[in-house]
Design brief:
This protein is α+β, with helices and mostly antiparallel strands. It contains five helices and three strands; from the N terminus they run H-E-E-E-H-H-H-H. A three-stranded antiparallel sheet has the order 1-2-3, with helices on one face. A hairpin with a 2-residue loop joins strand 2 and strand 3. The chain starts with a helix and ends in an 11-residue tail after the last helix. The model has no long low-confidence stretch (mean pLDDT 86).
Length: 167
């Protein structure tokens, strides 16, 4: 095993033990329908699951909190995702997701851009194992689903008519 592969394994182990963004997502309290959403994703092949809560601040990823059970890959990938996207503009987070997804679909071909993906490049080797790709994308899929929920609500939310002082 190369030193780079060892480093990548260590990143995955570290994140699976020290899960960044992991929180108790109790059902108490309603989410702001305009800026927050929750998504639960389940991998029936292995039983991994992730529930993610996303909050946007205008057009920026304000917070990503999650909970879940599963293998070290699914837990670590969600932790790494948290670190990569919180505080970033939504468009940039979506671009990172697209690059991450492309890396996972590459079947080990090509070299992922570490400048864009940061610690997420540790999952490049997963792309060679089709049965593990779903584990590595689970939290990211929850993020994407929660984002789509918020965007759908924002586009269908009624607008408040503006009035002028002359009315």
């Amino acid at each position: 095993m190369s030193s780079l592969e060892t480093l990548y394994q260590q990143v995955i182990l570290d994140h699976s033990k020290e899960k960044h963004g992991r929180a108790d997502l109790s059902e108490d309290g309603a989410l702001d329908p305009v800026s927050a959403a929750r998504s639960h994703q389940y991998n029936p092949l292995c039983g991994d699951e992730v529930t993610l809560q996303l909050t946007l601040d205008e057009s920026t990823v304000g917070d990503v909190s999650w909970t879940g059970e599963g293998c070290s890959i699914s837990q670590a990938a969600t932790s790494v995702m948290h670190d990569l996207i919180v505080g970033r503009p939504v468009a940039e987070a979506q671009s990172i997701l697209a690059d991450y997804r492309a890396m996972l679909r590459s079947r080990g071909e090509g070299t992922p851009d570490e400048e864009v993906l940061g610690d997420a490049v540790a999952f490049a080797g997963v792309s060679r194992h089709a049965n593990r790709v779903k584990c590595a994308i689970l939290g990211w899929t929850a993020f994407e689903d929660a984002l789509m929920q918020i965007e759908a609500r924002r586009t269908t939310a009624p607008t408040t008519p503006t009035t002028s002082k002359d009315d």
